[in-house]
Fold this sequence. Notes:
By secondary structure, the chain is of the alpha+beta class. Helix content is 49%, strand content 8%.
Amino acid sequence: MTRLTSSWDIPDVAAPVSDFGKTYRPFEHEGMYDFFKAARREEPVFYCPEIGYWVVTRRKDILPIFRDPDRFSASIALSPVTPFPDAMVRYLQENGFGAEQTQVNCDRPKHTRVRQVAAQFLNMKVYHSYEPQIRALVTDYVEELKGRNRVDIVDAMTYELPARVLFLLMGIPDSEARKIKEWADNRLLMTFGKLSEAELLEAGKGLLDFWRYCQRMIEDRQTAPKADYASKLLEVRDGDDSVLTLNEAASLVFGVLLAGHETTTNGLNNVLLELLRHRDQWERLVAEPDLIANAVEEGLRFSSSVIAWRRRALEDVEIGGVAIPKGSNILVALGSANHDESQFKDPEVFDVARKNAREHIAFGNGIHFCIGAPLARLEIRIVLETLTKTFPNMRLVPQQRLDWVETIAFRGPVRLMVDLEG
């Protein structure tokens, strides 16, 4: 079952707290890249007492963590950063909440078995078979935008679009898009955010509704299969619990109904923001659309939608010359690694023609590399191709305040005002 307790529930370990550890604000994103730049130079591995994590900022230290799942467990990847109240844990348990660890927060050998099943549907061939339908969806949104000028592009397009794309694969009607987005937002803040006890207690009701929805989907597909993800899981399972249990199938649906669109929504918003902030780069894409695929990679590198991920040390380890005890929580700063000067020349420059942009690790690395990465890339590329062609003069509304998703891991503006016609 998914860990309902906080990832803080480990034995006390003595950890020196430096100035970097004291000043790091994991839930605040303004100034984050400047902070990490200094950390990479002065203290690339430090302990943050606010969240109880060792923070690792250099690419060369992060990659070995991802590539060594036998020493660095993924089990805490979806544990709540802010402890769940005991009353909420009891409420979920007493009402049948049974989501279990399957992919992103699962270790071998179970991870290998479950991912092999999921990958029979979640793969590049299947994703690209949906390209005509994705293009049609994007076109529909753009047609709705025509004739308007000043809009919040998040509300008008990028908030809902990735969910509707995912629903094509999931066999979910469009009428349920907003409800599932609300459930997913709720779960994201519960897992990675800093909610009050009262907010968590209320959010627990939505989490239970979300889980029950996924259970019902699996129950429905057993008697009425479709050409979708849940049905494929059941087909591969073929009644054999040693391949996949019904609860694991529901848990896989529960996982993808969060991860399959939230990161893409933030990725779209981030790349649009940076392209319009760096106006010459937007104009270059308008003139040279062949650069759009590489611009997607540079956007993922420069402004990653997932800025940090989590691991737990299964034994005493040394990272970047720092001794870290067994049982310690580790925050790998993907956003920092994607700005690492040792890998990217002039990393603070946003360059849609950057030759090694694809060397970012915005989708992680190793056995837990994001299974939906090809779909996210495809969606962002199609959106950029369509918007640069339809609204070549699109600009940011000047002097607008940007508010960010307040979580430890996900980063994206919650509102982005643009003038479509310039």
